[in-house]
Amino acid sequence: ELARLMLALRVVLANNQYSHTFVFDEIDTGISGATASAVGLRLNKLACGAQALVITHSAQVAGFANHHFKIEKTATADKTTTSVHEITGDERLNEVARIISGAEITPESLATARTLIH
């Protein structure tokens, strides 16, 4: 709830602030469907006048992004490594489809991902 309240405040105050970078970590927790789409739309609106970095597990929220980055963590017995890389094109589409359907990307999840990516 606090993250969504902060989003609402930041959308309203974005034009009056000097700092124009906002970070939202898992703002989609506990929401889905139309509510997730509404949050994605507001984040997109916020990003028109500022930079918004959003960590999400929601395909509806991710669909509104202009750029996508994939964060992966690998662990061995003695070391954990995190990597970040930008994804574009089919990789972007496949990642949103994976968020929808899990490990197995289906034709249906790809079709839904196409409709969600704005």
Give structural notes.
Strand 1 (21-25), helix 2 (33-47) and strand 2 (51-55) form a beta-alpha-beta unit. The longest helix is centred in the middle third of the chain and has 15 residues, at 33-47. The radius of gyration is 15 Å and the shape is globular. The protein is 46% helix and 22% strand. Helix 4 (89-101) packs across helix 5. It has a two-stranded parallel sheet. The relative contact order is 0.13. It contains 5 helices and 4 strands; from the N terminus they run H-E-H-E-H-E-E-H-H. The chain starts with a helix and ends with a helix. It is of the alpha+beta class.
In short:
This protein is an alpha+beta fold. The protein contains five helices and four strands. Strands 1-2 form a two-stranded parallel ribbon.
Chart the SSEs and their pairings:
Layout: H1 2-13, E1 21-25, H2 33-47, E2 51-55, H3 59-62, E3 68-75, E4 80-87, H4 89-101, H5 107-116
Parallel strand pairs: 1-2
Antiparallel strand pairs: 3-4
Helix pairs in contact: 1-2, 4-5
Shape: globular
Distance between the termini: 26 Å
What average pLDDT do the residues reach?
Answer: 88
Q: How are the strands of the largest sheet arranged?
A: 1-2
- The sequence of SSEs as H and E is HEHEHEEHH
Low-pLDDT runs of 5+ residues are none
How many domains would you count in the coordinates?
2
Helix-strand category: alpha+beta
